[in-house]
Request: fold
Amino acid sequence: MAKILKYNIRHTTTYQYEENIDACVMSVCMQPRDHRRQVVQSFFIQTAPQATFSVEFDAFGNRHHYFDIHHRHDRLDITVHAVIEHSFDESHFDKSELPKDAWSKLIALKNDWDMWEFLRPTALTTVSPPLTAWIDSSEVNRETNPYKRLKRLTELMFDSFEYLPGSTHVDSTIDHFLDNRKGVCQDYAHFMLAVAKSWGIPARYVSGYLYDVSEQAPRAENATHAWVECWLPNLGWIPFDPTNNQLDDTNLVTVAIGRDYRDVAPSRGIAIGGASSDLEVGVTVKRELTETQTIVAQQQAQQ
Reply:
């Protein structure tokens, strides 16, 4: 039976400048996507100082909100509020559907234009000699089933690396992550993307939000998160979260997909006036029962 979950998300971003700037031009990628299990019920974005937005879609179908402010200001606040309905069916990913000739079908994708971007390495997902040595020493290649190999890679990364905020930055390389064995979710994602692509498995970077159901703090940055989706024959795009060793997207809200972090940065822009700035981000993710779930829960309690 499918579960229906509703997520209420509030995402605030503040740029505090050392002194007044003359103007700014910004791009924001924070509007969640609709997909087969996720429906955006509402989305709202505003800024202070107030701005007028234009919206464009990129090549991957992500929405980018653009705005500019042409008067002096020393602070910029961006506030996003979204309500998402997420359905999850535990039988959705039936691994028995993976064909016996899965590897042959994957090899054939090298001539598939739709998959080309997700098979080609980027500057942040390039396989280096140290990464090749890690793959060989881990013996993860011994697993012949593509899904089980990816599953094993997810487990191995979770056990091999330490999640440590502040240990890397947005342009950190895979080799830096591998040398220090510490990083954040985008480092885990870039690492897994590089390995999956080296096997000929299409893989894409996913940005979004993580809802933590445990009593411990989630391994995510202020509840913003990044993970990987890999394409497998007969199954389509399957989520893998090596940061938390999760193999489904029950507690994940997808915002954008791309080749790496640079395609889906939540905000970026130019400040005209030369002042440096401090960035502060705050995210809250709340989950609530839908009306259908509430009725079912009440019925079960009465039995």
Notes: The radius of gyration is 21 Å. The helical segments are 102-108, 113-119, 129-138, 146-160, 174-180, 185-198, 291-302. Residues 93-263 form a domain with the C8orf32 fold fold (CATH 3.10.620.30).
